[in-house]
Amino acid sequence: MISPLAYVDPSAKLGQNVTVHPFAYIDADVEIGDNCEIMPYTSIIRGTRMGSGNKIYNGSIIGADPQDFRWKGEKSYCIIGNDNTIREKVLINRSIREGEATVIGNGICIMADSHIGHDANIADHCVIGNRATLAGNTTVGECSILSSGVILHEGSRLGPWTLIKGGCRIAGNVPPYVIMAHNPAVYFGVNAVVLRKGRFSDEEIDDVAKVYRHIYQSGTSVFNALKRIESDVPQSKVRDNIIDFVRGSNLKIVAVPREFE
């Protein structure tokens, strides 16, 4: 159903069973998959590619022009996956780079008044809380939760299964499976409750806790902590995921005191 009070550009491509409510705006060069619902006063801007089963609530702007002075009109994209819920007044910017995209995965809930900057990449099954702000070139790993008012600074990277508590400001790399809180951000523990809901075993969660005792609580450098982890913690997928993330971040991770970097 497309309301006669909505504007849909003739070149836009809409799938089957798409509902466009009154006063919605669908720009040219937009593709919307099957079974999506576009609520009133929502704008879907050129360069947006949307999968199926998405619901976009009132007043959101998807695929907006980048808010970055480096963008000079390059043709870029905003790619939205499947089965996402994007609540009221969410703003998502396109990439600033020719042919590249801001990417939102599948099964994600982005709550009201949040802003997703250019070239952000949010993996599947994440929750982005009310008024969260993600600057450009940020990355959020799968099954992560950003509570209300979280700020991710430019280029920040979150590993999978992380929880960032309300109002926390992140400027850097947050390794997998942790909780971060406060300002400046501090290590708040292992994200055990959510990991159990994700069917991680007690043994895996124990291994995560052992790894982070070495990194955050042993009073040594990250380099030495990794050496100790490889000696003391049995090899496992979760252990190796953490080690690979930290090494891939050049040992620079959030909440490590500068003298231990």
Overview of this protein structure:
With 261 residues, this protein is α/β, with parallel strands linked by helices. Helix content is 17%, strand content 26%. It is built from four helices and 28 strands. The chain has helices at residues 192-197, 202-217, 222-232, 237-248, and strands at 7-8, 13-14, 19-20, 25-26, 31-32, 37-38, 43-44, 48-50, 55-56, 61-64, 77-80, 85-86, 91-93, 101-104, 109-110, 115-116, 121-122, 127-128, 133-134, 139-140, 145-146, 151-152, 157-158, 163-164, 169-170, 173-174, 178-181, 186-190. A ten-stranded mixed sheet has the order 3-6-9-12-15-18-21-24-27-28. Helix 2 runs antiparallel to helix 3. The longest helix has 16 residues, at 202-217. The protein is elongated and about 65 Å long. The termini are far apart.
What labels describe this entry?
single chain; 261 residues; alpha/beta; 10-stranded mixed beta sheet; 9-stranded parallel beta sheet; 4 helices; 28 strands; elongated
Low-confidence parts lasting 5 or more residues at pLDDT below 50? none
For the biggest β-sheet, the strand order reads 3-6-9-12-15-18-21-24-27-28
- Total count of helical runs of at least 4 residues: 4
The chain-level mean pLDDT equals 97
Termini gap: 57 Å
Give the helix level as a range of percent.
10-25%
Describe the global form: elongated
Radius of gyration: 20 Å
Main pleated-sheet profile = 10 strands, mixed
Q: Return the structural class.
A: alpha/beta
What share of residues are in beta strands? 25-35%
Give the tally of β-strands.
28
